[in-house]
Amino acid sequence: MYDTLIQMLDATMRVSTPLILAALAGLYSERAGIVDISLEGKILGSAFAAAAASAVFGSAWVGLIFGIMASVMLALIHGFACITHRGDHIVSGVAINTIVAGMTVTLGLHWFNLGGQTPALTGNERFLDITLPFAHAMQNVPVIGQIYTHLLSGHNILVYLAFFMVPVTYWVIYKTRFGLRLRAVGENPQAVDTAGISVTWIRYRAVIVCGILCGVAGAYLSTAHNAGFLKDMSAGKGYMALAALIFGKWRPVPVMFACLLFGFLDAVAVRLQGFVIPGLGEVPVQAIESLPYVLTVLLLAGFIGKAIGPKAVGRPYVKERA
Amino acid sequence: MTNTTTPYAIELRDISKRFGAVQANKDICLQVPKGTIHGIIGENGAGKSTLMSIIYGFYEADSGHIEVDGEIVNIRNSQEAIKAGIGMVHQHFMLVENFTVLENVILGAEGGAVLRKGIHDARTELTRLAKEYSLDIDVDMVVEDLPVGLQQRVEILKALYRGARILILDEPTGVLTPQEADHLFRILYSLKEQGVTVLLITHKLREILASTDNVSVMRQGEMVAHRETAQTNKEELAELMVGKKVRLTVNKGDATPGDTLLSAKNVSQFDAQGVKRLKNVSLELRSGEILGIAGVSGNGQSELLNVLSGITEMSEGEIHFAGATINANSPKNASQMRDMKMAHVPEDRHKMGLVTGFEAYEAAVLGYHNSDVYNGKVFMHRKVMVDECKDRMAAWDVRPPNPHLKTANFSGGNQQKIVIAREVEQNPDVLLIGQPTRGVDIGAIENIHEQIVSLRDTGKAILLVSVELDEIMALSDRILVMFDGAVVGELDAKDANERVLGLMMANAYSDDEQGESA
Amino acid sequence: MSQAKVPVWVNLALIPLLNISLAFLISGLVIYAIGQDPFEAAGYMLYGAFGYNEGIGYTLYYATNFIFTGLAVSVAFKAGLFNIGGEGQAYIGGLGVGLVCLALDHTMPFYVIAPLAIIGAAVFGAAWAYIPAYLQAKRGSHIVITTIMFNFIASSLMVYLMVNWLKSPDSLSLNSRTFEENAWMPYLHSLLMPLGIDIGDSPLNGAFIWALLCCVGVWLLIWHTRWGYQLRTLGTNPTAAKYAGIDTSKVTIWVMMISGALAGFVGLNEIMGVNHSLLLNFAAGYGFAGIAVALMGRNHPFGILLAAILFGALYQGGAEVAFDMPEITPDIVVVIQGLVILFSGALEHMFKDRIEGFFIRRATAAQGK
């Protein structure tokens, strides 16, 4: 039983990693007032770019850099549409998601001729699991040993990075000048403008940070969690991250817990596939799978707490004629 | 003006600014001696706000220049204004509501990439400033939890923290209680003692007279007079502000008021922020009379129209209309009020009265779109609507008389005629009409005025809201004056003149008798 | 002061044309970049979509789905609402169709099943849109987010139902049993054959006729009824809607239900028209494509019809290209679709403001003379 729990929590960490990265990415963007449903597209674009570059250059790190570049480029398109041209944030997001879905397969087929996939990545082309110091020695220590050796140790660097980004984001958002301005611009851009700060520049920086984190999330999917790129491999993770962002009420630590919850539900659903509860029949796995979305809807509707987003989110900033 | 050898704190030279066809500021000159409180008064639309926005770098002037301490400064954005030592307290506060006072104050002046040190320094500095200018405030409070008066104090602190030596306040007492306003003025005096120059923009004469050293009057985009406050009085200022207007002449006989059709008793309304926008307004409207509501805009007239017409629900009080009692518990919406034969020409035809993307014939049924006249079981009778629109366009001389032209493509006067025709032709018992001639050309004004009078003569009850004093005086039979959400005076149109109305609108009429109203 | 006007054709033709051209240009560059000849690809695409009867049939078959989801998106747009949940509503609408067919195909003739299937699609699609609409109107939750969430919930729900209830024991894949033929939407080629008209063998079916009727219906609803009047007022000027006494939450709810019903009709085409059984993922992509169609069609039913045929042609032509030029997959069409959304949606102000400004200046200059 304890082993199973550890295994499930271990799976939770792995599944949650891209969610945490993407949800934090969304946090930077939305806290600055830019709605981002193109998290999905950015993850997918980065997953492809990372796997492709990694396959070509033989290094997962090079892959990561390319993944981040691809994602940042998409973020800049989103910024160009939403910030510079006052476009609708949702429409822009849908456009990016759609373009990426088509583009990755088209380019993949051309480059690798594998029906849109990238070649299977091996060795240094992937981020491999790291064994933390003394993991082996700790193994037999009761309770803690299990947690240390099998849960905390043995993940790849990007998993640790994702969790490390939570306190970092907290610090950036609440303790730095950039974070202060970013939060202000998502609440009341006019106040920022009258304080003599450029609204546009802050928002661009926010979407770039968003792009970087989505880039890491994508690279994780294709070069760490999996060994290569598959068509549509983001599979709704961007949207789930968005749900987690709302569920965590746009705050870094709660967002992380939301991601862990959603990841845990996923791990549970996988485990319970085909599991029959005596007298009740088969566990409706799909109900567990859809729980993140149901919970988010309930939260948005104010049935479980209240989710109040940044006040100016989704609204272009136009200097008003007083 | 006081003669000083030292340069002025701020001096404007021939500032002009045009927005499209509107000359918002024309050759404005202004000299403000250091360490004084300088009032700028004027009616709405006189160009005060534009001028202040130019000083604060929100707009660039088309021509002219600004000098601070005798040196020409180039202010192209707020940052440069701040650098020149200018701070501004906007009418609508520029605060991030879920930030603490401290966070709001340091925004844009954080003193480093990491906040820790900046926050620490700011705390010390704010304590000093607070003591120096008696601006007590808990800097760790979240702004949205503060009362309005304290939020304003945050704005002042923000400016001072940035080293402002010139502080502009735009209609600062509009949202304050009298006690808060008194406190604000005490703060302004202590600022003045410390050598800060204050520019106070207001339409309240009493404040100007009580607190300023000098006063400048603006009218229609121009600076029309500068006075030393001690050397002037409210009568003179009111007259300067309102100007000697060409008397509008409207041919109208005496009113023969009949029954009371609409009455409001102690109606109050709070807005979403909990600010009381209407304060115990009572009025009676009789058939065959035009009741004018005078006042500087923003003193509750819009809220009054919205509450009476059912667009917003009142918070307290009640309205009696067409045999029904309407109050907070049994509200009626706009469409129910229409069914009870109340028509409403809204103040802002673009925002409310029309859908500018609609063709004229469609806009001509807005609010009456459910009427059987225009509807079959399923479809609307397009031909009926178009024909009716055509007839009305002919009757009201709307040009071009094309029911299929988009509403946006008519001139202001013709748009207004479409709206007025729509409301009047429904043959209502009560007509609420707001700013009937705003943005309307001269020829059409006369026409609209005649229509309003002839409606009165057919026994309708008309409530007219206008910020144009001459319009109020020319059309009304009775006049109520609104100030700060309350009715502060009532007079027969025969007894009204610009001076009296101007004083009432500034809440400065017979101070000794009336005292603090509302 | 009569205001200068932008000629009608600028907004109706020039700007959409410019947007689609740009989308084609960029995708042409992509094709060029992967070492293929864009003009050759365009040729195959055109031939595949319109070159022969069967191709045209396929084009119109795809267009049918786009008409439904395009109308769904645009009805909501017209009221100022963004229904991004067409995907889920189409899916659940298909469930409604499938349940009607499975329940009645043994006992009822086609002319009973068909109207009930239409109602089934409408009711299920509308119900799926009702919840987000209600939550937006009464509880203030953002409709875009809720409809996205509902897409995923729909997808889980369908898997659950298929796996646990609807899967046919005879089928290896996740399909329900195949309906009896009296629950099939007739193919147009088999309807026209007796009249001596040969349109080639394609999945084009009766749902296309229904789609055309929906275009007319939506046009009438929006421009010729008081409900349409209220919807447009709310969509263009919410303040004026309050002034006119329009109940905005009521309008929000029924507009979304109509939108959901329209999306649900995708099920008629896919489930009743082509697959003849319930299955998974039959609506995939059509909901989002509806956004492109609505934007391209300027939210007008006639424009949507044209845009739907354009996208139908791209889908069908894309398949043809993939056949003749294996280096290019139909995914290039998805890229074009995305670019259309980008240029005619997200970047609409980029050209529009400049072009309109140009014409206004020109008109003003002409007036001045």
Largest sheet of chain C: none
Q: β content of chain B, as a range?
A: 15-25%
Instruction: Provide the CATH architecture of the largest domain in chain B.
Output: 3-Layer(aba) Sandwich
Number of extended strands of chain B? 20
Spatial separation of the terminal alpha carbons of chain B: 36 Å
Q: What's the Cα radius of gyration of chain C?
A: 22 Å
> Which descriptor suits the 3D outline of chain B?
globular
CATH-assigned homologous superfamily of the largest domain in chain B: P-loop containing nucleotide triphosphate hydrolases
Description:
- The complex is a heterotrimer of chains A (322), B (518) and C (369).
- By secondary structure, chain A is mostly helical.
- Chain A has a single domain (2-122, 138-300), classed as ABC transporter involved in vitamin B12 uptake, BtuC (Orthogonal Bundle).
- Helix content of chain A is 69%, strand content 2%.
- In chain A, strand 3 and strand 4 form a beta hairpin.
- The mean pLDDT of chain A is 91.
- By secondary structure, chain B is of the alpha/beta class.
- Chain B folds into 2 domains: 8-242, Rossmann fold, CATH 3.40.50; 260-354 and 422-517, 3-Layer(aba) Sandwich (Rossmann fold), CATH 3.40.50.300.
- Chain B contains 18 helices and 20 strands.
- In chain B, strand 11 and strand 12 form a beta hairpin.
- In chain C, helix 3 packs across helix 14 and helix 8 runs antiparallel to helix 14 (301-324).
- Chain C has a domain at 64-299.
- In chain C, 75% of the residues lie in helices and 0% in strands.
- Chain C has helices at 8-33, 38-50, 53-78, 86-104, 110-139, 143-166, 188-192, 207-224, 226-236, 238-243, 248-264, 266-275, 286-296, 301-324, 331-346, 348-368.
- Chain C has 369 residues and is mainly α.
- The model of chain C has no long low-confidence stretch (mean pLDDT 91).
- The interface between A and C is large, with 50 and 51 residues.
Question: How is the secondary structure organized here?
Answer:
The complex is a heterotrimer of chains A (322), B (518) and C (369).
Chain A lengths: L1 H30 L7 H19 L2 H25 L4 H24 L16 E2 L4 H4 L5 H9 L2 E2 H19 L1 H11 L1 H6 L4 H27 L11 H11 L4 H21 L3 E2 L3 E2 L2 H16 L22
Antiparallel strand pairs in A: 1-2, 3-4
Helix pairs in contact in A: 1-6, 1-7, 1-10, 1-11, 1-12, 2-3, 2-4, 2-10, 2-11, 3-4, 3-10, 7-8, 8-10, 11-12, 11-13, 12-13
Chain B lengths: L9 E10 L2 E11 L4 E6 L5 H8 L7 E6 L2 E3 L4 H6 L2 E4 L11 H6 L8 H19 L14 H14 L4 E5 L7 H16 L3 E6 L2 H7 L2 E6 L2 E7 L5 H9 L17 E11 L5 E11 L2 E6 L6 H9 L6 E6 L2 E4 L6 H6 L2 E4 L3 H5 L6 H4 L18 H14 L16 H13 L5 E5 L7 H16 L3 E5 L3 H7 L2 E6 L2 E7 L5 H8 L5 H4 L4
Parallel strand pairs in B: 3-8, 3-9, 6-7, 7-8, 13-18, 13-19, 16-17, 17-18
Antiparallel strand pairs in B: 1-2, 1-4, 4-5, 9-10, 11-12, 11-14, 14-15, 19-20
Helix pairs in contact in B: 8-17, 14-15
Chain C lengths: L7 H26 L4 H13 L2 H26 L7 H19 L5 H30 L3 H24 L21 H5 L14 H18 L1 H11 L1 H6 L4 H17 L1 H10 L10 H11 L4 H24 L6 H16 L1 H21 L1
Helix pairs in contact in C: 1-15, 2-3, 2-14, 3-8, 3-11, 3-13, 3-14, 4-5, 4-6, 4-11, 4-12, 4-13, 5-6, 5-11, 8-9, 8-14, 9-11, 13-14, 13-15, 14-15
